[in-house]
């Protein structure tokens, strides 16, 4: 199978028909329902609800589901850090399973939960194997959900990286670097995507374009419409 250009999340239902293949990327399976019997390079295992398995690139694996079938959240990714995850159990399996169930819920309404699905692969990796702390230096943890909630309440203000950094108790340069490391984008890009995600949620709730623009701080309905069009293109 070809490598995925970007990490890809999917919900997959497995039946009694036996399958067998290998691929050129990591495949992460987290059981949601039923039991998936999987044998990786001759090593057998079962992925039941609340269990997980990482298949490394090139590993031949055979699989079939028991009884009425199995449903798994599947992540296809080339991120090299999953190599370590293939060698060890998740750091917190209940947390990983809860995250997987939440992402499965989000996938049923992808437009409403676009931001959560975008961050899903990184969150799964962090839940499985938290990044090691830097030696001799404790880093202040950024509560991204709390920071997002703070920003969402202030779209009427011209928010800057310095504003975010003040709330996170970091310098602007530290906040900018941490956002690139932990969110995979610049702080302003993260802020714009958050604002657009909120605007899209309001539109899906039936709020008019003008009122949505007012609530999310866009200077005009046409500016909001153009921003949403760029996001979807």
Structural summary, described in words:
- It is a single chain.
- This protein has helices spanning 82-85, 93-107, 114-128, 144-152, 161-168, 172-183, 187-204, 209-216, 221-232; strands at 8-14, 19-21, 26-33, 35-40, 43-48, 52-55, 61-65, 70-77.
- The chain has 233 residues and is α+β, with helices and mostly antiparallel strands.
- The protein has two domains: 8-92, Jelly Rolls; 144-232, Arc Repressor Mutant, subunit A (Orthogonal Bundle), CATH 1.10.10.
- The strands form two sheets. The chain has a four-stranded antiparallel sheet. Strands 2-7-4-5 form a four-stranded antiparallel sheet, with no helix packed on it.
- Helix 7 runs antiparallel to helix 8 (209-216).
- The chain is globular.
Strand order in the largest sheet: 1-8-3-6
- Helix/strand order, N-terminal first: EEEEEEEEHHHHHHHHH
CATH superfamily caption of the largest domain: Homeodomain-like
**Proportion of residues in helical segments:** 40-55%
Q: Which stretches of 5+ consecutive residues score pLDDT under 50?
A: none
Shape: globular
The CATH level-2 architecture of the largest domain is identified as: Orthogonal Bundle
Mean pLDDT: 86
Quick overview of this protein structure:
This protein has 233 residues and is of the alpha+beta class.
Topology:
Layout: E1 8-14, E2 19-21, E3 26-33, E4 35-40, E5 43-48, E6 52-55, E7 61-65, E8 70-77, H1 82-85, H2 93-107, H3 114-128, H4 144-152, H5 161-168, H6 172-183, H7 187-204, H8 209-216, H9 221-232
Antiparallel strand pairs: 1-8, 2-7, 3-6, 3-8, 4-5, 4-7
Helix pairs in contact: 2-3, 5-6, 7-8, 8-9
């Amino acid at each position: 199978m070809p490598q995925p250009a970007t990490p890809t999340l999917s919900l997959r239902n497995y039946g009694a028909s036996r399958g067998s293949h290998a691929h050129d990327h990591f495949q992460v399976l987290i059981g949601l329902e039923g039991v998936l019997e999987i044998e990786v390079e001759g090593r057998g295992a079962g992925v039941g609800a609340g269990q997980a398995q990482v298949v490394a690139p090139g590993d031949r694996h055979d699989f079939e589901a028991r009884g009425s079938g199995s449903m798994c959240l599947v992540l296809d990714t080339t991120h090299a850090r999953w190599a370590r995850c293939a060698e060890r159990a998740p750091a917190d399996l209940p947390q990983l399973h809860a995250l997987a169930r939440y992402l499965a819920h989000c996938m049923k309404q992808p437009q409403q939960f676009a931001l959560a699905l975008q961050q899903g692969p990184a969150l799964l990796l962090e839940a499985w194997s938290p990044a090691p702390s830097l030696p001799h230096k404790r880093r202040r943890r950024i509560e991204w959900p709390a920071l997002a909630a703070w920003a969402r309440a202030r779209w009427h203000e011209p928010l800057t990286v310095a504003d975010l950094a003040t709330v996170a108790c970091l310098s602007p340069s530290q906040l900018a670097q941490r956002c690139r490391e932990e969110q995979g984008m610049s702080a302003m890009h993260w802020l714009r995507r958050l604002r657009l995600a909120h605007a899209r949620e309001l539109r899906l709730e039936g709020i008019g374009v003008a009122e949505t623009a007012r609530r999310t701080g866009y200077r005009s309905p046409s500016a909001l419409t153009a921003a949403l069009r760029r996001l979807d293109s």
